[in-house]
Write a structure and sequence with these properties.
The complex is a heterodimer of chains A (254) and B (256). Chain A is built from eight helices and ten strands. Chain A is an alpha/beta fold. Chain A has a domain at 1-78 and 155-163 and 187-254: P-loop containing nucleotide triphosphate hydrolases (Rossmann fold). Chain B has two domains: 1-33; 41-250, MetI-like fold, CATH 1.10.3720. The chains are: A alpha/beta (254), B mainly alpha (256).
Chain lengths: 254, 256
């Protein structure tokens, strides 16, 4: 069963169109099969599902790291990527990490530096530009990885559980900074998580994936307004009902 | 002095205590004839002999000769080993082709190859330099291979996702990622190189610190033998210190 609740403003061309996508690993394991998904420009879209349902595989495929065996995935612009886990380059300072994508795009050095510094300071890392990742806290390192992805001004941001390694408080702070940054730039975001609270705190819509091989079970609208205070999202009317609905979608299909 | 400074000074003192105690005991033993000073001359006598030999230039000349052989052999051995090792880490068929032979040659005691090398190259500096290069090659090969293989997949994924081409992935991820393993390989290799050059000079050289030690031993000039051993030790400490300093400069993210 695939429910695609199209958002009200679906008149514009979508930013991400995925049709009947299938991804298989070398050992024959089918991670994704028959996955359909459409994401509107500027939408914050959460991909929710249990571990091992192919969420990371989906993001890696969209990031161009894995190749699909069938179907298609189309992105309406340049993308950038925040992988799961520790991903900052240990040999680069926070500023050099944030500027990595720009450097690859051969942006002049001075501009790299200036744009990296601007993003870092927007993420609350002013003063830590010259520190190496091992001199930063886990939360700060994840901010650097997010800064690296935002710095290139990509239209589509692919984020794979960037907050999953953080403690609760640090996670809340990261969500708030991430949403503030997103509000100012409004890229399309695909945000993979296994955490229902996180999906509801951040996203405009949530797509639930089935267990392996992953396909889209349902896409649910999150009707909380913008700009949204992610810290108090649990108090919004309808939160409990939405949470239960998503939980049931995950559990029934397990 | 702050707390850290005090702790550092304390650990230096503690580290010096044992060697100083041994030297004092040795000196006392020699002065009181507890040991035969023909074979075990007092440290002061060894120092005196070192000083004499430094002044007449002989010790320095031999140290230079040995250093030159070491340096040449190290560069000739380590440079290709680095490239071949990284290439083997990157390209599967190269690894598959080289791994069995490299493993076999890696376990052969280097000095056991000396007669063969002398047959092939005859006694001379090319043979001595080759011995060093040969002993260094496989250690550096394996360490750079391991370094390349240990590079974090996630970091390569990030580079690819940001559109870095093959060369950029190598330059911005593979090389810095492999560098720590490579540098520790170079340090180990230098230790081996020192053993091999001294051993080679024992058996197949008329100059160099190894020849000086061996020659002194044969003519029962034991203070000179100890002076030679001390010179080799100093050389080893200096080279090791230089390598550590280079490592610190090249890998700042590990130390700051």
């Amino acid at each position: 069963m695939t429910i695609l609740d199209r958002p009200a403003a679906a008149a514009t061309r979508p930013a991400v169109v995925i049709e009947q996508l299938a991804v298989r690993y070398g050992d024959g394991l089918t991670a994704i099969e028959g996955l359909d998904l459409e994401v509107a420009p500027g939408e914050f879209h959460a991909i929710l599902g249990p571990s091992g349902c192919g969420k990371s595989t989906l993001i890696k495929t969209l990031a161009g790291i894995l190749r699909p065996v069938a179907g298609s995935a189309w992105l309406g612009g340049a993308s950038s990527y925040v992988p799961q886990g520790a991903s900052c380059f240990p040999w680069l300072t926070a500023e050099e990490n944030a500027a990595y994508g720009l450097k690859v795009q051969r942006v002049p050095k001075a501009e790299c530096r200036q744009r990296a510094r601007a993003i870092l300071s927007e993420l609350g890392l002013a003063g830590s530009e010259r520190r190496y990742p091992h001199q930063l806290s886990e939360g700060m390192r994840q901010r650097v990885a997010i800064a690296r992805a935002f710095a290139v001004d990509a239209q589509v941001l692919l984020m794979d559980e960037p907050a999953s390694s953080l403690d609760f408080q640090t996670k809340l702070n990261l969500h708030a900074s991430l949403l503030a940054l997103w509000e100012r730039r409004r890229p399309t975001v695909l945000y993979v998580t296994h955490d229902i609270d996180e999906a509801l705190a951040l996203a405009d819509r949530v797509t639930v994936l089935s267990p392996r091989p992953g396909r889209a079970l349902a896409t649910v609208d999150v009707p909380f307004g913008r700009p949204r205070d992610s810290r108090v999202v649990r108090n919004f009317p309808g939160y409990g009902a939405l949470f239960t609905r998503l939980l049931e979608l995950i559990e029934v299909n397990q | 002095m702050n707390r850290r400074g005090l702790r550092f000074a304390g650990s230096v003192l503690l580290g010096l205590a044992l060697p100083v105690a041994i030297l004092v005991l040795w000196e006392t033993a020699a002065n009181r004839d507890w040991v035969n000073t023909l074979f075990y001359p007092a440290p002061s006598a060894v120092l005196e002999r070192s000083w004499d030999q430094l002044r007449d230039g002989g010790l320095l000349r031999d140290a230079q000769v040995t250093s030159k052989r070491l340096a040449l052999g190290f560069v000739f051995g380590a440079t290709p080993a680095m490239f071949v090792g990284l290439a083997a880490g990157l390209i599967r068929p190269i690894r598959t082709a080289l791994y069995p032979l490299a493993t076999a040659l890696y376990v052969v005691p280097r000095i056991a190859m000396l007669p063969l090398v002398l047959i092939a190259l005859s006694i001379g500096d090319p043979a001595r330099v080759f011995m060093v290069a040969f002993s260094v090659f496989f250690i550096v090969f394996f360490s750079s291979l391991a370094g390349a293989e240990q590079v974090d997949r996630t970091h390569l994924d990030v580079a690819r996702a940001f559109g870095a081409g093959r060369l950029r992935q190598i330059g911005t991820v593979l090389l810095p990622g492999a560098l720590p393993a490579l540098m520790s390989g170079l340090q180990v290799a230098m230790g081996f190189a020192l053993i091999v050059i001294i051993g080679t000079e024992f058996m197949a050289s008329n100059d160099g610190l190894g020849a000086r030690i061996w020659h002194s031993y044969q003519i029962f000039d034991f203070p000179s033998m100890y002076a030679g051993i001390m010179a080799v030790t100093v050389l080893g400490v200096l080279i090791n210190g230089a390598l550590l300093a280079i490592t610190r400069v090249l890998i700042p993210w590990r130390h700051v």
